[in-house]
Description:
Elements: H1 19-33, H2 36-45, H3 47-54, H4 59-74, H5 76-85, H6 90-101, H7 105-108, H8 111-124, H9 131-139, H10 146-158, H11 162-170, H12 181-193, H13 197-206, H14 216-228, H15 232-244, H16 251-263, H17 267-279, H18 286-300, H19 302-314, H20 322-334, H21 338-350, H22 357-370, H23 373-385, H24 392-404, H25 408-420, H26 427-439, H27 443-455, H28 462-474, H29 478-490, H30 497-509, H31 513-522, H32 532-544, H33 548-560, H34 567-579, H35 583-595, H36 602-614, H37 618-630, H38 638-650, H39 654-674
Keywords: Repeat, Transit peptide
Family: Belongs to the PPR family. P subfamily.
PPR repeats: 180-214, 215-249, 250-284, 426-460, 461-495, 496-530, 531-565, 566-600, 601-635
Amino acid sequence: MRRTRLLPNLLPRLPKPTYLSAQILQRSNLSAKSGHDAAESAAAADPARAISLLAERNWFERINSEFAAPLRHLGPRFVVRALQQAAAEPLLCVRLYVWASRFGQHFARDRNVRRALGNALWRRGPVVLSSALVAEVQGCGCVISEELLCVLVESWGRLGLAHYAHEVFVQMPRLGLRPTTMVYNTVIAASVRAGAVDAAYLRFQQMPADGCRPDCFTYNALVRGVCRRGIVDEALRLVKQMEGAGIRPNVFTYTMLVDGFCNAGRAEDAVSVLEKMIEKGVEPTEATYRALVHGVFRSLGTDKAYRILSKWLESHPALHHRDAFHTFLYCLSKNDMAKEAVELVHKMSNKGYLLGNIMFGIVISCAAKCLELSYVCELVDDFIKKGGKPGFDVYILIIKSLLSCKDISKAQKYLSQMVLDGLFSSVTSYNMVIDCLCKADQVEMAKEIVKVMQESGFLPNLVTLNTLISGHSKLGNVHEAKAVLKMLMELGFMPDIITFTSLIDGLCHTHQLDDAFDCFNEMSKWGVRPNVQTYNVLICAFCSAGNVNKAIDLLNKMKMDGITPDVYSFNAPILSFCRMRKIDKAHKLFTDMLRYGVAPDSYTYNTLIKALCDERRVDEAKEILLSMESSSCIASNQHTYWSVVGALTKIGHFSEAGAFMNKLHKRNAHLGSSA
Length: 675
């Protein structure tokens, strides 16, 4: 039966000119009165003008009259800019491409132009090749070119519309086009991308009938398709057929084969493919090495992958490709194989390779977690000695580790090295080091860094001063914290929530609760609203001082002020009530906690269960334990079970205690097998 339509009419009708279009037209008429030359100059400078013309009914005449002359000088770059701005309206992008293509193949075939058009059609498409669109293009004296068809087909492939691409392909003669190798390649690649490998093979087999000869791109698209499906033996057959046709496989062919063999779990064959690639004189790229190394780790696991790849690298002494080592090193570090990573670093060093800052930082990050700190410092020192410059993050990591070990002299040494390397380039970089020192209780060192900061021409900001106040407060040095607060005010800063919370915390540490509460009340005068952390500091302090009622008053005030309490707001009062053996009040607070939608943590559950067991209220303890087990976020531990087992034993329920012990053993066995 003869078809009555040229192509499926899936494209919506073109919208009528909107009010915005009318405004644009009115503005263009006004500008025309000021002179034709000025209008041409403005149009050339603004791609938005061209886009607005494309939205009008007589778009072709309008854009041709204003932009035909300037376009010859503006070139493809102007078309790319206009396509990017019109990306939300893919139909306008098609119109622009059709019009610009009239001015030469350097517009139609420009890679950047086609990429910009393809991205617009993919992100906001699909734009289908309807009879209305074909008539519109032909009505302007233009044609659906082979280049435009290929861009459309590529976008359909990215959108998973392989079936529609094949429908259009068979109707090419009605568009005045005949199949070429480029069109076949585009349809085959689009089919593969959409997962329709069978349809791609069908077109591949039809190519000779249309006088089209497959090329390297054709075979690569098919190799990619079968490798993605895990049919790597078929990929090898295609490569042999390719070579038999006198087409030499390129780096993309071999890279896809390597990746395909790894995904199929045949890592040894992937290594063989790479060796064959080198024998054939095809130079592997970074992508090839990445595919091999990541694929072997993914396929074989860490230990076996390390053995195979190490053996392969050692058996190819002529292979001095930095990318192979770097990718191998990256995988070792990400899998916490610090010893092996350091060994590889030494091998690279012997071959004359010095790691870059980024890769060295990845290795050190792994080594700091798995190796002795002294050995890590030796690695850093050796790297510096050989001319390397560790990055800011590497120094911070080492300094934090040294401070946690109380090795202050070495930390100072690396701080000095950071200054010499010029790594302090902003207030933010200084603040990171100051924060690191204050958290390690080295506030005096932090103050020295502030002096260096000021001498280097950087003024402390609010973050700097708040960090110092927090550091002093943590140590209970309220006098020093107040001195920093005075400096803060003198520099013209206003105290914020962090300033007040840090001061309140310092006053609580020194048991100056009245002053802490006065500071809390003074916040409103400065226009600062307390947050949940501010309340928690005071609640915890009053509970520690035995004034639980005051803590409960603060908790109630917190709710009235519209601040949602968290688990820490409840834990301190619950613990205090349990210590005072006021279990009913603790249980009521636990119930309030659930009612407010605050999820208890393991500390909450363990505290309450132990207190109930101590009071031999075992049934209530079991209910809470059951609630704890039903929570997907909290895992009960053996201490929780032992509290219940001990309480059951004390009241003579030995069989039930034994059942709980068996339950605990089964749970531990399950966790062990999962690990």
